[in-house]
Amino acid sequence: MPRSIYLLSVPSDAGALNGTDLGPESLLNALPPALFGAGYGYHKVVRRDLGEQTGFPGTAALHRRSRGKVHRKREVVQVANMTAQAVRESLNWDAFVAVLGGDHSIAMGSCRGALEFARSRGKTLGLLWIDAHYDAHTHLSTLSHNANGMPLATLLGYGPPCFRPGRQAFLPEHVLHLGAGEKDCEPPERALLEQLGVRMIPAKDFRQLNVAVPWRALVQLLARVDLVWVSFDLDAVNRVHAPGVHLRSENGLTKMTLLWIAGHVAQSRKLCGVDIMEHKPSAEEYDGDGRGKTAMLASEFLLTLLGKDPQSVQ
């Protein structure tokens, strides 16, 4: 059990302007009660709202005229750099880190910060990317010019140099992508990941109930690294359980599959942090008790990663 949990709120959608900048506030309302209910009230849960404390660009700044091949490049870099610094500091304080977004371009910073921390300690870091999209465009292949389609390529060493200060990158054999859908996954992205040798298990493989292949891929990743960071885009999960996202998934991962993945990561005892990204409160749906379905899913996912049974938490 981690000594402390830092919930790092990153209220930015600079990478897409898709309404996910309000996601962290919604998640901060849902996650702490679940953590306290799981017994983490005794351990200090630290909320660090980076949007309030370190001056993330506001809405007006994000609507400046775009230049170059990536929209709002300067704002994306600013957010990523601040996030990387906050993650490094939190991990140096021996904390478990949950980064709450915001659009997925924020992972350029969170995952970089975790990688820099791991290498400073002489450890290898694995990256488990759970997403309905590959997020592996570069500035040369993107059609939307939005940075939220580029973080995985960036973390592998491709894309605009300003997105990759220090030029550190994940080794392809230390990256596993789970949950890609059948729509909005474009050929240039897959081609780059295939060229690099990144292992990919699409959502349809899980639906075919052939868990042996994903299980082996996950076990192999966890075996070859010292630490692991999970970057989770909520749109990887079927819309029944995750309606509060910008692009709802019709045939995504089931909640059972997601928690199965989280449970295996928890058993490894190698997890140092997680991104929970792309929550869009304006698209949220609520159960009979008024609880947001997507926020509840995020809570169950986080608890399972921490080795807790969500059903046992009142």
From TrEMBL:
Under the heading InterPro entries, the entry gives: Ureohydrolase, Ureohydrolase_dom_sf
Q: Please verify whether the record's keywords include Mitochondrion.
A: no
Q: Which Gene3D superfamilies match?
A: Ureohydrolase domain
What is a GO molecular function of this protein?
A: arginase activity
PROSITE patterns (UniProt xref): ARGINASE_2
Q: Name one GO cellular component term.
A: cytoplasm
Which keywords appear in this protein's UniProt record, sorted alphabetically? Hydrolase, Manganese, Metal-binding
Question: Belongs to which family?
Answer: Belongs to the arginase family.
Q: What is this protein called?
A: Arginase
Q: Which organism is it from?
A: Candidatus Lloydbacteria bacterium RIFCSPHIGHO2_02_FULL_54_17
From which lineage does this chain's organism come?
Bacteria, Candidatus Lloydiibacteriota
